[in-house]
Amino acid sequence: MLLKVDAIQRLEWYREWFERRGRSAFLSEFPHPVLVARENLETETEASFHTAFMSRSQFLAELQKGGSSAPDDRPQIRAGEVRLVRKAAGAAFADRVGVGRARNADVWLPNPRVSKYHAYFSGTSDAGYTLTDADSRNGTWIDGEKLAPRTPVPLAEGSEVVFGPHRFTFYTAAGFCENIGRRARS
Question: On the CB side of 29, how many CA atoms lie within 13 Å of its CA?
Fold first, then answer.
């Protein structure tokens, strides 16, 4: 089965892949951490916003403090979409995986509330991963805490990560495999 690794897939696609090929093939094919999209902070309702750290209205007020513009017509990132946290071909900074709205970002998030170079991931599966805000306009959060610019913060399995209006759950490759394995019908 050919896999177009740059394609953005949904959790269901990964579950079906896991069911057909198995755990060891899954870990071999998907050796990178991932971000699983949650509801977009601009479009979800107060009732669907679930976090112990701040309410949706508090978060949107924080975004407005940065003087950010209104949402545009670019495609929204839908809940359940998976972004691979890995280097893109030809991307800058070999020692990190960049996140931003620039088309050449390793993890591309097309939204005006995401800076061109918003944040970056560093680390390895053995040493652990960190996330660093690249002095973005609207900030980066881990589990409800706004990151200080240019200060690496360790990531835990299942951490909620927010870039502008986009919320994700962070998984290592092994953690993502376990998550998909629990969803699999086998």
Answer: 16
Confidence of residue 61 (pLDDT cuts 50, 70, 90): low
pLDDT in tens, 63-111: 556 554 444 455 578 999 999 999 988 787 888 999 999 988 999 999 9
Record the tokens describing residue 89, joined without a space. 């071909």
Nearest-angstrom CA–CA distance, 64 and 80: 26
Q: Are 23 and 178 in contact (CB under 8 A)?
A: no
Alpha helix ranges (H) inside the chain: 11-21, 23-29, 56-65, 173-183
Distance of CA 113 to the CA centre of its chain: 15
Looking up tokens 């998909």 gives 180
For the entire predicted model, the pTM comes to 0.80
Query: Residues of 14-40 as b/e, b for ≥16 C-beta within 10 angstroms?
Result: bbbbbeeeeeeebeeebeebbbbbbbb
Tokens of 16: 């079906």
